[in-house]
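## tool: complex_structure
## caller: assistant
## args:
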Amino acid sequence: MNGDKLKIALYWGAACGGCDVAVLDTDEFVLELAAEADILFWPIAVDGKYEDIRALPDGALDATLFSGAVRNAENEDVAHLLREKSQVLIALGSCSAFGGIPGLANAVTREEILERVYLDNPSIELGNRTVPRTRVPVNGTELELPAFYPRVWRLSDVVDVDYLVPGCPPAPERVQEVLAALVSGTLPPRGAVVGAAEKALCEECRRRKADKRVARFVRPWEIVPDPESCLLEQGLPCAGPATRGGCGARCPDINQACRGCYGPPPGVQDQGATLVGAWASVIEAKTVEEAETAFAGLPDVLGIAHRFTLPASLLQRSCR
Amino acid sequence: MSRPPLPRIGVFVCNCGTNIARTVDCEEIACAAMEWPGVVVARAYKYMCSDPGQEMIAEEVREKRLDRVVVAACSPRMHEPTFRRALASSGLNPYLLEMANIREQCSWVHDDPRAATDKALALARAAVARVVRHEPLEKRFVPMNPATLVLGGGIAGMTAALQLADAGQPVTIVERADRLGGNVARIDLTAPHLDSARELLLGRLARVSMHPMISVLLRAELEQLEGYQGNFTADVAVEGASRRLEIGSVVVCTGYKEFDAARVEGLGYGRLPDVITSFELELMLKRGRIEMADGRTPRTVALVHCVGSRSEEYHGYCSRVCCMTALKYGHEVKSALPGAAVVDLYIDMHAFGKGCEDFYRKTAEIKTLFLMYGKNAPPVIRPAGPKDDCNLLITLDEKLSGEEIEVPADLVVLMVGMEPREDAGRVAQLVNISRDKDGWFIESHPKLDPVATTTDGIYIAGACQSPKDIPDSVAQARAAAARILAKVAKGKIEVDAIFAEVDAARCSGCRICGTMCPYGAIEYDEEQKSSRVVEASCKACGCCAAACPSLAVRARHFTDEQIFAQIEGVL
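## result:
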């Protein structure tokens, strides 16, 4: 990097905006960041157009933080654009890193989504059969919408990504660490997961752990969890054992089971499958009936186990 | 994951006489293998496991400087140790061997030579792909504490203790009751030789109590057992106080309890005072007088077999000792009350033990009346009426005559079967052994390893393993002692080189592995907040490695890389 200020961009694909808020939640650090770097593009906070980015020479941006998954053609086009213009591309947050919550849409097909949202929905006006299309003729001209893809992709499925920052959203302290490392040029070698721990969440969870024997899984409203002991041992489907640490165990600290937002621990390919394996391991059931009773408290195994990583899993998507 | 330097692999294909070569073209496999990456020699031979076969492998290892060997032959359960020795004899670490099972998984189960050869090729290719990832492994040793804890001071426990102590090794007997002797102390004579049970016990009791190497804890119970084979720590509660023992082995000899005859309604036990159990008769015999509740002498004594045993409702198994015990009662009744009649109601007469068939014949000679009833149709006993010249009436469907008959009796003895003690489940949990569907402790192998258990260092002997008579209990006790003495003689425990290990840098301390381990081989370090495999207890089953959500547990010799390489080799 030359002596000039850093040039960075932030973008959101299929995302809720929470990752951008996490950046803002670094509080006054954002101002320090702005002092160290020119933020050329950040739809949620800074004025800037695609045209401005296109006008830049390739590699002109020192880094881009891309939050959100790739759901449509616009997400993908901008991903390619920012990849070309950025020396470092960081997938910020679990949607970008693993597909995230939007990735759960891979449990159904595009047709099912359009049917449900635009045609078979109680709030649709009777007789209205309007479904978004890529090209629509209006008053003699043609409007173009970004194509809605058959499935959700991770950022790394469409472009090369240098770093992953997991979390939904990433903890602001972790975001700050990553940004500080970016500014100071102390990021680890490319390909690393940054802003996260190298062990599973249980490591940083303050609860007391014992050997686990779970008679049945419970829904969160069914029990008031004991604040001291392991939530999984109490029957809550805690994702901690198969989730990368780094958040500081914020959910277990407030009596909530880990939802798994930091994705799989190092080396684990499929967080959801690993979680199902872990949960099945602790079930006490000796018969099929007992196992069914035990798992009755997990009505949506796919949605709970793969909550943040379905597009990154071995399953990837529904193929009906 | 860096690729290892190019290996030098030898592939040895066994014809197994015609066992393999009949269906699989072994020469073709050897030829094809020469083309696979890293293979520098591939040969087929008629019997790889023979001395010349092993010598061929060793020679090639030395001459061609092989650093990996694949033997395509039978199941590794059959000859893996053989070929590992062959590698070791040529100076190669024995774990640099991989076997492809082209016999049980191939030639024996397929007819089509082409398809079988193709499958054998795939298996051999997988073995070659896997062996590249093998690592040299070394066996380890842990010390063996020579002291033994014997749980239960019955005939089995005392026998095991004496044998160990006579060999100079320290033993502690933990007995819950306030005296030694167990159930044998409750009986008078033994079948089939009518020797005195008291005589059997007295000598042993004296020796146990005098023996300098045996300490006996009465009114004592095991509370906790920690550690592993050769290195256990036991906490024993003795009359309220807790005592800690350092021991190397445990022999569980907790015995049995008798079936509660009151559960079989129709027999009237508990309601009819002259319906008694076999143990109650033993007490009468020991006191020297067989009598009815009102003090009269019975004229007819009926013996009902299989009370609680061999029934769908109670226990499906045979309690093994009751038939001979009933015959023994026939003799004892006849000798005490020569004028009395003995009626023996049985389902099948099980007289399988040494000398037992002779005993059966002799009992028939003393004019016992044998009546046969059907399984799941126990006789029904009711009080006799004033006109009947007897105390009780027994109704049964007599199978030999095919008729429903009524038998008069003054005293009925119920041959109550054996069942696991109420606390057998707790004992099993304490020492980490398993129980079968009936609640008896499970041995390591029903035929080949009858006194060891799936937990190394824990042995079972006597009726806690299943119903058995005194000779069998004693034989098991002696066998268990011999097993322990063999380990004590070695002085150390060899730990197989294949075990699971936890990478502390990855372990988050979630403790899922501890739940999965069937052998209690995983310890949790409260300070480090991580789990640890006790190598000496690990049986390399791989449950922990498969369950670990952090990939922190690695099963040596069955690593993910090795297994994935093997899968890719097949494909």
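## assistant note: Chain A touches chain B through 27 residues (CB under 8 Å). The longest strand of chain A covers residues 6-12. Handing back to user.
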